[in-house]
Amino acid sequence: MLKKTLSALTWLCILITAFVSHPAWPQKPPKSKTPAQLKAAACCAEAEELRAQIANLSSLLSDLSAKQERDWVSVVMQVMELEGSTKRMESRLTDAESKYSELNNQIDIMQLQAAQTVTQTSADAIYDCSSLYQKNYRISGVYKLPPDDFLGSPELEVFCDMETTGGGWTIIQRRKSGLVSFFRDWKQYKQGFGSTRGDFWLGNEHIHRLSRRPTRLRVEMEDWEGTVRHAEYSRFALGNELNSYRLFLGNYSGNAGNDALLYHNNTAFSTKDKDNDNCLDKCAQLRKGGYWYNCCTDSNLNGVYYRLGEHTKHLDGITWYGWHGSSYSLRRVEMKIRPEDFQP
Ligand SMILES: *[C@@H]1O[C@H](CO)[C@@H](O)[C@H](O)[C@H]1NC(C)=O
Ligand SMILES: *[C@@H]1O[C@H](CO)[C@@H](O)[C@H](O)[C@H]1NC(C)=O
Ligand SMILES: *[C@@H]1O[C@H](CO)[C@@H](O)[C@H](O)[C@H]1NC(C)=O
Ligand SMILES: [Ca+2]
């Protein structure tokens, strides 16, 4: 646009200059001050003025173009500066946002932990730790799942593992301190016992309810050398109480040696006061726990907690035959579940 105007003006100047320097009309050489000569003088004065005007104009033009260029550069600089500051602002905003969401996370957890009575629709119902994960709770720890009339579930305190292989795990069992006895009766295994932060059994009723959706089970174990292994099973489910909380498992995967739980597949739960095993013996009494005893065990994750030194001498310890055999009691065990279709 500017260039076009400039070139048009330039052409105009050239034309005018040409016209002034070589006037088209016939001019007689000046000899004397005849009227014709006077006319010629007037014409020359006019021409001079024209020339000056043109000179003025062209100097004006060059001034103008120089100024325009400066303006243009300054506009470009301003735009660039603006872009730079926008970028800086954006990065500051992102920073602030991530800090805010982190803070929000923590506040939400505190709010959640301070028992809530929020009414919920089924769409945003909190079933378990995986629902909490999907709602952006990403810190492992104790949570209170609110009661839900729609699901018919009571308020439940759970421990969520939000880190292992993407998180979203609800812990259903833990052995690590040895301070809680697992030699308990049917009712206690049904309702759950122990402390969510320490050793506990979440409760067969809760586990049954939480495993109504296709669910995955993960068993994590640690021996007394500090080695950690895990076993995972697809299609984990517990029947209801009428089915004696029967265990169902899919395929095994993991690095805990040979599988030691499939032997207990499709087996009812037994406690010291309820013998549902497949043996003449009373496995729960022999192995001193509550478990899906077959005849009797390939693993005994709810057995007696034996400490270092005592840990290799007993058949009723916390065993996993496929790794350390039938008389090695593990130092730490955690059983956790999450929906099969969980997407971290
Ligand atoms: C040329 O420009 C100057 C300053 O802008 C002005 O004073 C002068 O009269 C101009 N001359 C002509 C011939 O227009
Ligand atoms: C278990 O593995 C078998 C053989 O690889 C396969 O056919 C079956 O579908 C698997 N079952 C589950 C529940 O993944
Ligand atoms: C576990 O038992 C159920 C019921 O008998 C069976 O359908 C399933 O295939 C078994 N799981 C495995 C991995 O064999
Ligand atoms: Ca029996």
TrEMBL record:
The secretion signal range is: 1-26
Q: Which GO terms describe its cellular component?
A: extracellular region
The record's Gene3D superfamilies line, in alphabetical order, gives: Gamma Fibrinogen, chain A, domain 1 (3.90.215.10)
- Which compartments does it reside in? Secreted
Alphabetical list of Pfam families matching this protein: Fibrinogen_C
Q: Which PROSITE patterns match?
A: FIBRINOGEN_C_2
Q: In this entry, which stretches build a coiled coil?
A: 47-113
Key words, A-Z: Coiled coil, Disulfide bond, Glycoprotein, Secreted, Signal
Q: Which CDD domains match?
A: FReD (cd00087)
Where is each Fibrinogen C-terminal domain found? Answer: 120-341
Which GO annotations describe the biological process of this protein? blood coagulation
Instruction: Give the primary localization class.
Output: secreted
| NCBIfam families the UniProt entry points to | GGGWT_bact
Which PANTHER family does this UniProt record tie to the protein?
FIBRINOGEN ALPHA CHAIN
What this protein is called in its record is Angiopoietin like 7
Instruction: Specify the species.
Output: Suricata suricatta (Meerkat)
Name the gene for this chain: ANGPTL7
